[in-house]
Amino acid sequence: MVKSIRTTCTCMATVAEGGKTLPLSLAPMGFVDVTITTTANPGAGLEQTYSAIIETDGEGDSPREYPIAMQFVVADILKAESPSLQIHEADADAPANSSLVLFTYRDPRVIAMPTIRVLGSDRIKAEVRASTIQKDHDRKTLPRYVVGVRIEPASGDGGELIEGSIEIETPGEAKVTVPVSCSFRSDIRFQPSFVGAGGCVGEVVDRDIYQEFAGDAWKDITVVSKPEGCEVRVSRFDAGTNRIRLTLPVLAADQSGFLVLASSDRLKSVRVPIRYQPE
């Protein structure tokens, strides 16, 4: 007598052939097919285990129990490795190139070619191609596609941070978004790396920064752009000590921004952050 089939999860169901219901009485050497199904729990992880217990009549008052374990790997959505792409101090003489691998955890399904879209910067370029790797590299993951990423430099970057994101969409899959950031190496640097303007709001202060360079030193410096409402000017430039004195008012902290300085011939420029620190 098969009395019952207990399961460890409400997501599991049991169906006997021919619509038979429990309890079932079997003749000696008889059998009945019972299908046990389950729906994967999205929050239970990649590898999931479920079990059922078949309870039958035993000797005397003690029933017999027969456990059945169900173990499987959940078909996973497409993922990106790495989850974010960050390039620091790339060579400014050529585009910065990198790539993302799109993979699944040994999912046997056919994964359609995704479409990609770049947001946030027209200097970030991306294209997708099928992966040439046919076998999983660690017995768990399977590379599917590769997204080639190229970030174009521009004259006068001076360490400016280029930011954007790549959206990856595949039919039937959740959207994957990968943040992208890149900065290009500059032969012009300053110490400190930002202008800290502290004091009472509206107070005019002088701040010194010192130029470092790997190429030719500047002979003159002009202000190309500045935060709105900030009347910043170069009040002194000492070519002997590479000191640049900036005169500027103290503004509210949320008005912090960037100051762009350039050589007088405008062939070189650099962005320097301004951080207002009002008292």
Write a concise keyword list for the protein shown above:
279 residues; mainly beta; Immunoglobulin-like; 3 domains; four-stranded antiparallel sheet; four-stranded mixed sheet; 0% helix; 53% strand
Mean pLDDT: 81
CATH-scheme architecture of the largest domain: Sandwich
Strand numbers in spatial order across the main sheet: 6-8-11-10
Approximate strand percentage: over 45%
CATH H level, superfamily name of the largest domain: Immunoglobulins
Task: Let me know the largest β-sheet.
Answer: 4 strands, antiparallel
Number of domains: 3
CATH class category name of the largest domain: Mainly Beta
Oligomer: single chain
Order of helices and strands: EEEEEEEEEEEEEEEEEEEEE
Roughly how many Å is the radius of gyration? 33 Å
**Helical stretch count?**
0
Structural class: mainly beta
Shape: elongated
DSSP E strands, number: 21
Tell me the helix content. under 10%
CATH topology of the largest domain: Immunoglobulin-like
List the helices and strands and how they pair.
Layout: E1 2-7, E2 12-16, E3 34-38, E4 47-56, E5 64-73, E6 79-81, E7 85-90, E8 96-104, E9 115-119, E10 124-130, E11 142-151, E12 161-169, E13 176-184, E14 188-191, E15 195-199, E16 204-213, E17 221-225, E18 233-238, E19 243-249, E20 257-263, E21 269-278
Parallel strand pairs: 7-13, 15-21
Antiparallel strand pairs: 1-4, 2-3, 4-5, 6-8, 8-11, 9-12, 10-11, 12-13, 14-16, 16-19, 17-20, 18-19, 20-21
